[in-house]
Fold these 3 entries.
Entry 1:
Amino acid sequence: MTLEPGPGPSTPESAPEALLPGTERALLRRLAEAQANGRAPSVAAAVVRDGRTVWTGSRGRVDGLPPTPGTQYRIGSITKSFVGVLVMRLRDEGLLGLDDPLDEHVPGTPVGDRTIGRLLSHAGGLAAEPPGEWWERTPGKDWPELAAGLGPDEARFPAGREFHYTNLGFGLLGQVVAGLRGKPWNEALREEILLPLEMARTTHRPAAPHATGYAVHPWADVLLEEPEHDARAMAPAGQLWSTAADLARWVAFVGGDTGGVLAPDTLAEMRAPQTVEDAGAWTSGYGLGLQLRRDRGMRLAGHTGSMPGFRATVWTDPDEGAGAVVLANATSAVPVAAVAADLVHLVAEREPRLPEWTPLADADPALVELTGAWYWGPAPYTLRLLRDGWLSLVPAALDASAGRFRPGPDGTWTGLDGYHTGETLKIVRRPDGTVSHLDLNTFVLTRAPYDPSAPIPGGLDERGWAGRAGA
């Protein structure tokens, strides 16, 4: 069972309020600076709040016209996040396990001992690129030819030793999807993700209107058109084309609006850190098919992408309920990842979420009775009733671990946070039905500090809480 670290802000039924003109101007200004300073032929962007697009913008030209939210750009490694969802759907269906070795599903490679989960989190120790010519700028190989060229050197590090970004690993994961679905990975993608989420302008190959990819000369304002091709077996690492409008839907998806494509618990599992990318700073890492970043107090999830002639980024902060997409048709110099993060921050800072409390319409009296003060030994805790029958156990001590608990069908609760993640909370009752104590994976919490009427492990001093001379 996977555990959800907590629901994000609820999505309102009505359309979100329009952004203030000053906020919209600030967003456009940031995008314009990126296009001008980065000398990008064009950029397109969108901002999402509470699952809905609240702003789109663009600068530059595509075929002589300003790009629109429907103009396609190549999105590079954002493709990996789609592949990650396909793999996790297979896991949820019981067709594979994250601890399965690759050889169980794609036999015959020299890296068959690496697990699916390690490949999803770039912890499999594989080479960054496949053998042969620079795959991003040359015609792709079909799987048999790519597989025939793999050798033991593709395993560069022991599995799990460190984060090492690998395009090759996601080419292999694409073969896992194709093998288990009995169809090309991109067909499975279209049927299982793109159609349900109504992302009709996200395609395996470019579909007009689309931007052309360019390199910009470092010392002159002139362009060089970049090659474009079908990467074939390496396509799962960076093939897809998409639009600001379609990727705004993907922002909402990564933020929690899964549209029935993936279980919310599974998406939360994908956003949970598996490896740290920058071990010294601990600001960026990787989940299961998703990049993660800490940025000015926000916890962003999504993915960056680059292919010759293109750069792209999708970021979302599920806690803030805001995210952004930035697309550019330039090989370098446009910091789209930083710009996307800036757009999220501009909205959050200029128009912070407005809190609103509403009472519970219906609450179980037996749960209400449980709320209030509890003690683990002499340490005080407060138990609160949350929505949907969840419980929150909050310590008075700042250095202790708080947590929420989700009810299960057997009358117990499962921990969702911190130290108590996955642990079981039980309500222990006396023969007459009254509550005796709480049992949190052998920790006994009582209504009074070391309540003598409760079964305290180790027993209690018969003299009780009397003072001790010379203590």
Note: The mean pLDDT is 92.
Entry 2:
Amino acid sequence: MNVVSFFAGAGGLDLGFEQAGFNIIWANEYDKEIWETYERNHNDTILDKRSIIDIKEEEVPQCDGIIGGPPCQSWSEAGALRGINDKRGQLFFDFIRILQAKQPKFFLAENVSGMLASRHSRALQNIKEMFKEAGYKLSFKLLNASYFGVPQDRKRVFFVGIREDLNFEFQFPQPLKDKITLKQAIGDLKDLAVPANEGNKTNEKNCKIPNHEYMIGGFSSMFMSRNRVRSWDEQSFTIQAGGRHAPLHPQAPKMKFVEQNVRVFVPGKENLYRRLSVRECARIQTFPNDFIFYYNNVSAGYKMIGNAVPVNLAKHIAISIKAQVENAEKRLNKPTIKRLELENTAS
């Protein structure tokens, strides 16, 4: 099945779908800092570099599925329900506009867990109504990536819509029994990381492993307000899009509590505290080793990785979508197949 991807970023969601057997034939990403990374890692995908608001429906290839994660702000704008006819600059509405025009078999849209907060209840209701009006049966669920082969606590909301004529409601995959630890994910990288160059410019030439460099610089009082270290036998904190907020490496002991909202590094162990490297964050997001990130400032590397959907989580959802859509198509085609068999027997 062929899929097109919007707000593709570095392509974590896309890669997960590829690993599940889908073909990502076309993708859209407006951030020029990401283009080289996407194109070098997705050789068979056409990358459209315009803003979605400038893309006409007929310019998007016909496909079996549309996937992507419209930015958080555009989801919130749905609360005002300005309407499909007033969509310029409102990225969520452009996602709906193209979905409505192309009518693929399914769509997937991803958003942060805060989308389910009570203050967004109106937006959520409007979103559900718009997807229904577009011709889709909607399923949505809050998933923690740590239950789907990702060594990280990361909660995100996924909306999956199935075109009405396929006549079924998507069921999300069940959590896996075992969790992956930080030791399993990044233990082999422990002694090979290098600090970024001054100004947090890339130090790639000194990296024995691609992207295995970490951001340097101090830690804010906000960062120091709580523990930022997870142990080797645990899963990581959420990998964020900002390098300054990257979790600390598990080689360090957990930060020492001083008082409410104040913690310090364990005295005498300060040298063990460093941010996770770009490559370690990529591993935790379950990008494969041969997926290389291209940037001049390490902050851009952290941003690409932190904004991505974890590859393994995307893969598990994609496998479920593929199986359920194919089963529905077989079920719907059975009467036709039976009729043809009877006609052939009669002749």
Note: Residues 311-346 form the longest helix (36 residues).
Entry 3:
Amino acid sequence: MKNYSKLPYFVLFSVIILVFACNQTNNKKGNETILKGSTTIYVDETLAPIIEDQVAVFENEYEAKVKLVAKSESETVNSLFNEKAAIAILSRNLTTEELKIFKQRKINPKITVFATDAVAFISNKNNKDTLVALKDVISFMQGKPVASIKGLVFDNLNSSTVRYMNSLAGINAIPEKGVFSFKSNDEVIKYVSENDGMIGVVGVNWLSQPLPAMQKHVDNVNTLGVKGLKSDNYYIPSQNNIAEKKYPLARDLYIINCQGFSGLGMGFASFVAGDVGQRIILKSGLLPVRIPARKFTIIGKNENDKK
């Protein structure tokens, strides 16, 4: 065994510098670290409001600049495979087939679960019925007539909400009759707020954190209570109902980091999953993966109190 303790200090220092330089060479962004530099993150547009909040605080805390690109779920996933982006935020995990593609490229995606979201059903305030059975929505999507549903409204055909509901209904494409799509969750909320009898399908975060211009439209819709396939009760998508697994349309959220080096993808994921990021999740109305600890200050009694 070699005795490195006998090497001159300047030689040991040179070795350390060399190792550090090699690590920096592996960093494809050059000056990007886990908390410094710039990067691009693609996000499923259904999740955009909560991620925008996370990015704003992250950039304020660190010397980092994150360009957020909100796209449909399919476009966000494709951005990883065509190498437009190395970081994506989705409402689903990568499939076995997708992971195989990365493995062939010698990339091991770092996957972080950071919150639980929910798909919400909304209707116009003029509608007296604020309850809906999930089995009726599924039947309507399968092309069967349902007296209580005039039509379903989605954000766009490539969105995570469409994929999610198609999966529940066991169909590959939405029916041509009675199901409509727009370009964004805001458009769905606006349309439903102005049209009676329609049920909108949106990410719950768009209701809990609307833009100022959208507040009047959010105020004119009801969030429907949903009865699950194996339940006799109706539940709204509240944090408590999601935490207790009572609301039937909850889904986990994932940060998919394919950078392959210690860059902002790792730093941002750690931030979102950490105490500050989880507090932002909690405040947004979604369910964090871990409830942030609450700090209490215990003040002892003074001498006058003891008398």
Note: The longest helix spans residues 9-26.
